[in-house]
Amino acid sequence: EPEVTQTPSHQVTQMGQEVILRCVPISNHLYFYWYRQILGQKVEFLVSFYNNEISEKSEIFDDQFSVERPDGSNFTLKIRSTKLEDSAMYFCASSETGGQPQHFGDGTRLSIL
Amino acid sequence: RKEVEQDPGPFNVPEGATVAFNCTYSNSASQSFFWYRQDCRKEPKLLMSVYSSGNEDGRFTAQLNRASQYISLLIRDSKLSDSATYLCAVSRDDKIIFGKGTRLHILP
Fold it and tell me: Which in A11, A69, A81, B106 has the greatest CB count within 10 A?
């Protein structure tokens, strides 16, 4: 069964540094998403991406964050000037169309020191 | 009011019992509805989509009541492997809004 893959599985970074989280969505999917889950809390929507542009973003997704689809397969989340409170699991997801079930990757655990 | 609310957990249920999860959502513009399960420190995995007509997949039955803005999930003949957190999810535009989840422990 096709799946969403994410790398790295765990990223440890010093506060203030930049991180890039990578995702390879399912190949025939057109919509891509990032979510985060702080330990013990619910899964929160960050951003959706379609047709090479952001289609929706949450209040969490401020100027510190950016997304990019640099080639035909990868979808990245960049976090600039990381803060302690950015520590969380970051999940990438994709779906065939908007409103369809989203399939999640197994996440990147981001730890900011 | 939270956009998606679920029963507080955890539910501790003996193996073989039937378990019911309830969920309400506040935004009537919500378009699609799902149940996901999440194992500890893992990603949400789609369990099933939920339709107004009700739908069943083996031991799992989901129901949607748009008028009441209520979603349910029933698990029959529960197994030890059903132990997980069950997430109610609604989609609107290009995002999914998750509930906080209800943790289920199936006891041998």
Answer: B106
For the segment B7-24, what is each residue's pLDDT rounded down to a tens digit? 878 999 999 999 999 999
State the average pLDDT for chain B: 94
Half-sphere exposure of A16 (CA within 13 A, CB side): 0
pLDDT on residue A73: 86
- Write out chain B residues lying below 8 Å of A104, CB-based: 43-45
Q: What are phi and psi of B60, to 5 degrees?
A: -110, 130
Helix (H, G, I), strand (E, B), or coil: what is residue B81?
A: helix
**Distances A16 to A11, A19, A65, A88, A112 between C-alpha atoms, Å:** 14, 10, 13, 16, 9
Q: Do B95 and A48 touch (CB under 8 A)?
A: yes
**How many contacts (CB atoms, under 8 Å) link A and B?**
55
